[in-house]
Write a structure and sequence with these properties.
Layout: E1 4-10, E2 28-29, E3 38-42, E4 49-52, E5 55-58, E6 67-75, E7 80-91, E8 96-102, E9 107-114, E10 125-132, E11 137-145, E12 150-160, E13 164-170, E14 175-182
Parallel strand pairs: 2-3
Antiparallel strand pairs: 1-13, 3-6, 4-5, 5-12, 6-11, 7-10, 7-12, 8-9, 8-11, 13-14
Length: 192
Amino acid sequence: KNDKLYWFVLDQPENLLGNGEFNDQDSISNTTVEYDKWMIIADSGVHGMDITGGVLVRDGTNSGNNSSARQHVDIEEGVTYNISYDRKRTGGTTGRTNVFSDFGDGNQNLAISDENATFNSGTFITVTDSVTATVTGKMSFRIYFIGSMEGEIDNISLTRSATSRIIQYDTKKNIITPVLVDIENTILQLNK
């Protein structure tokens, strides 16, 4: 007699950034910011960055000014985005990395990591943050090495927060109907 089936579905968000693992040496654009390619640039002077051994490396050839890797992504108003990256400090007089991007409320410093300038851990640490977009459109995602920091960045990801759903399938009418859509997965928490 029960002619309805129910599914509990959790989206598996995918990385909106191309080559966030830096495993593709050809993913660099030295002239323009693009989708799926990293443009490497210094605020002024020499950036000292390259993709080497599957990581974004900044060495001592930088001129001591901020340098960034940039890529276009599309964002949607009201959606929460999760930022994550691994970073390792190896030298320089500063130890800061951050994401500096405009999700609709002007440029913001996000996913900030400061490591003591006199200590080079030599190990990767994971930095995370989240932000909710207040506009829909194209955004320039920018991850920075600040000042003269030397180090490595890897595994950069920008993902939408997971969405969970309860879906009903009516076997007699052959109709699928959403019963509950939890945009931020805060009510159903299917991944907990």
